[in-house]
Write a structure and sequence with these properties.
heterodimer; A: alpha+beta; OB fold (Dihydrolipoamide Acetyltransferase, E2P); Ribosomal Protein S8, Chain: A, domain 1; four-stranded antiparallel sheet; flat; B: alpha+beta; Ribosomal Protein S5, domain 2; five-stranded mixed sheet; 4 helices; globular
Amino acid sequence: MSEIIVKDKEISVPGETLAVGMDILPGSGTYRDGEKIVANRLGLAMVDGRTIKLIPLSGRYIPKTGDTIICKVIDVGFNGWRIDTNSAYSAMMSMKDATSEFIARGANLTQYYDLGDYIVCKIVNVTSQKLIDVTMKGPGLRKLKGGRIIEVNTNKVPRIIGKQGSMVMMIKDATNCNISVGQNGLIWIYGEPMNELLAVQTIRKIEKESHLSGLTDKIKEYLEENTKK
Amino acid sequence: MTYKQRIDGRGFDEARPIEAKVGVIKRADGSAMFKIGNTWAYAAVYGPRNLHPKFLQDPQKGILRCNYNMMPFSSSGERVRPGGSRRSKEISLVTQKALLPVLDLEEYPNSVVDVFIELPQTEAGSRCAGICAASMALADAGLNMKDLISAVSVGRVADKLLVDLDYSEESYPDVAVADIPIAIMPNSGKITLLQMDGEVKKEELMKLLEMGKKVLMEIYEIQKKALKEKYHEVEV
C-alpha cells in the first residue's frame, strides 16, 4: 500500500514527505523515517520507478574525486602549492603532480605557479576530512594566462557545458573565445574584450534560464543576434 | 487597567500578518526575509566555508555560527546601541541551538556555516522571526536538513492567553505578563526552543503550546510556499 505523494520534477523543501511505503527507496537527498520518505534538502524531486531522489538546485561546491576544477594558487610551500577550490576546503598539489618538467632541488617554486595564478587541475583524492589532492598531469590541465574568471552556481555547470560540451562549444564558436569550465563553478574566458563580454552575458543567461526546455536553440538565437553587427 | 481584547483587534489565537521571501540577498549562499507585523528579519547564510580561528574547528562535523543583530533605529523605544550586547549574544546562542537539531553538517568537517540575522525594525517576537528567516535561508543555501524550523511567541497578559505578542502586549502596564518564545520542527512536532519570561501555570503552558502549534503550522506553510516560489520557475 505504497503511495508516491510528490510529483515528478516538483520542488521539495526539507522535511516534506515525498512518499509513503516500504517498497519505495530513498535516493540521494532523501531519508527514510519509518514508513515515510522525507526530503533532506531543497531540491527537484525525481521519481524513477521505485526510487525517489532530489536534484540539488543550490549550494556550494563539494569537492569530488575526478572533478576537473579551476583553482587559484593561494600559497607556495617547500614541496607544493596550496590552492583555493572555491569550496570550504583548500587543496594541496605536490611537486611531483605539478608538472612534467624537471624541478631541481631547492628551486623557487613560484617560477612554475605563482601566488594568484589560476590553474585547471583535476582532483585525485578527497579524504573523509576533506583533504584534497590535485594533479596537473593530464590532457587539458594547465596554467591559465590572461582572460577573465567568472563564478557561477555549481549546480548549473552541467547546463553550461551541455550535452557532450555542445553548449560551451557553441559559445566558443560564436564568440571566438577560449573557454574553460571548472566543475567548481569557476569559468575562464579568454578572447577579444567585447567577445569576452558577450560570452559572460551568454553564460549568465544560461544560468538564469537553465530550467527552460529548448535552451540550446534559444542561446543559439541569442548568440546569432549579438554577433551580427 | 484590565485587558479584555487585543489592542490591534485580532483574536487571541491569531498571529500578526506574515510575509516571507527567499533569495533576497544575492551575494549570500542562501537568504530569506520574514516579516511578522512590524517585526522584520533578514537572514543571510554563508558557507560551508573555511573556519578561522583554527581552534574552533571540529574534525567531526561543521559548526553553525549565528549572529543576531538589531539595527540602531529598529526598536520603537530608544535607539539601540550598535554592536553586540548581552542580549544579542544570548539570542544568537539560542538561535543556534534552535537550528542545530535539524542541520546535518557531518559532510563538512572543519568548516563553518555562518548565519547573519539582521532586524531593520522590531516590535517584539524578533528572535522567533529571526529563527524563521534563518531556517529558510539555510534551506536556500542547499544544506542537508531534516526539517524546517518555525517559531512564534505565545504568552499571557493578565488572565488572557495569547499568541504572537506585540510590544504593547509584552510591556502591558500593571498586570502580570508572560512571554514564551517557542520553535518547533513542524513535521515531527519536536520543540527546539522554549524560553519563558514571566510566570504561567502548568495547565496554561500546555494550553499555550497547543495554541502556538496551530499558528506554527500556518507559519510553516508560509515558509514552504516562499521556498517553492523562488524556485517555481524551475518547475517545467
